[in-house]
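Students often ask why we bother predicting the structure of a whole assembly rather than each chain alone. The short answer is interfaces. A chain on its own may look different once its partners are present, and contacts between molecules only exist in the joint model. In this exercise we take two input lines together and write out one structure for the complete complex. Read the inputs first and try to guess which parts will touch.
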Amino acid sequence: MGSLIKRVLFILSFSILQLSLIAQDIRDINGDQTGYLSLGARNSLGMFRTNGKSFTGTGAGGQFGIRIAKDFNSHYFADWITSNIDNVAQRNDFHSGFSMMPQLFTPKLANSHVEIFPLAGICIDYTKFSITSGNNYLNGPKWLERYSFAVQAGFGGTLPVSKDLDFTMDAHYMLHIGTDVEIERN
Amino acid sequence: MEKKSCLKILILLFIPVFVTAQQPDKPITLNNLCLMQATISPGYMFYHGGLSNSYFHATLEWCFDKRTSIRADGSYFFTTQGEYKPFMKNHSLLLGAFYHFPKNKRDYYFGLQPGAACVQQTSYTYGTTDVLNPKLKVAPILTTTIGVNYFFWKYMNLFLGIKYIHGTHIPDYGESIPLDELRISGGLGFHWQKK
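Now the answer. The structure tokens for the assembled complex follow.
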């Protein structure tokens, strides 16, 4: 059992702003957007190491964002990632947390309004390992689960596609605090 | 005889009038447009040397400005062609955003949609044991779509789209199955524009 899991997540997300359900004024992407709420969907590609080998997983989820200040955005997310570990085990991760995104860099690329930001946040994590090989079929599946929390940090960028749609791509390095679960081959 | 000839000439002379009386093609405006499309969709899955699947595919899309839209897709798995049929179910639900390039009555688009696939394998042999009625499992998937709509009438359109799906089904026992697949959808759709 290790004490930490290190995981890198690449997140692609789409935020749809000012849906008609939300009585917000029309967004001015040149102006102050403090207080704007956005809803979105996201895909995650996760990479992690166990037993000295790297594996990847695919995930999906949703998020909402609140612009806290003119140059400070925040995202609140939930996603779920499944990973195949050498056809020996399956790893399921459920994350729910938030990221704070100060807009420290806003490159002036013509009128593109691209925002580049570092991010940091905290999330809670549920992980379930299921053994998918071995002579365990008749005995029922073998699995282990654990709850933990993680701190994450990374960087990303947001491209406002239109006044109603943002595209964000970011990468997190996620440090899980708590016990680790690893697969060992006999 | 002369009367008939005169009538024919008059009709011929009036044809251009009827032609010019037609309204010129109005370019489509996507703003506040709601689209509904449904079709039978064939899919080519790269697993096991290539599998041909078929689905019922339906979409619901809302364009909230001239260029962007939000769209939900649902696919209901019918069957796999051929003798090897690894899936009983491979349904999927997607939600994502699209960017459009409208031009006259045509609308080219691309989009990204995260989603989930509900997969149930057919019974299979694992080692020396038969796994009967495997559990239905849900797999997260990532999809990208390109396509074109042709708005030939105020309320109807023709559409053609190609979707690439990436995901993995990890069964309780045995090897995982990549869900990577190309699906083609084409047919007739309905749309309605909010004034």
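Check your guess against this: The helical segments of chain B are 2-20.
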